[in-house]
Write a structure and sequence with these properties.
It contains 3 helices and 3 strands. It has helices at residues 2-8, 31-59, 82-102; strands at residues 13-16, 62-66, 107-110. The radius of gyration is 16 Å and the shape is elongated.
């Protein structure tokens, strides 16, 4: 963030858009695939938003846009990607939490 601010100035908007799907049946999925899905889809949103959120709190403004998925709310049968569904449900709840916590700093957070 320090280099971004130095090179480009304050960040006003970010878009959390990274995501992966590693399809598998629950009973056949590996812990490695599960963790990779959570790392990219959920941890990535948390880490980037946290870093940028700190700067936006100082400037008292900002917009964070996170690309969610209907798979965070429903099961898209017959697709077998439960890890993806769980990660996107987490993204939606994380987004709601950030929206509530950061509203007092004039930061809008949406998915």
């Amino acid at each position: 963030m320090k280099q971004v601010e130095r090179d480009l100035g304050p960040v006003d908007v970010i878009v959390n858009n990274a995501g992966i799907i590693r399809p598998s049946k629950i009973e056949e999925g590996t812990l490695e695939d599960w963790r990779k899905t959570m790392a990219v889809n959920l941890d990535g949103v948390f880490l980037l938003s946290q870093a940028v959120g700190r700067q936006m709190i100082k400037q008292k403004s900002g917009n964070i846009i996170t690309v969610g998925s209907m798979s965070g709310h429903i099961i898209n049968w017959p697709f077998r990607h439960t890890a993806y569904n769980v990660s996107k449900a987490g993204v939606h709840h994380l987004t709601k939490g950030m929206a509530v916590e950061w509203a007092e700093h004039n930061i809008r957070v949406n998915a």
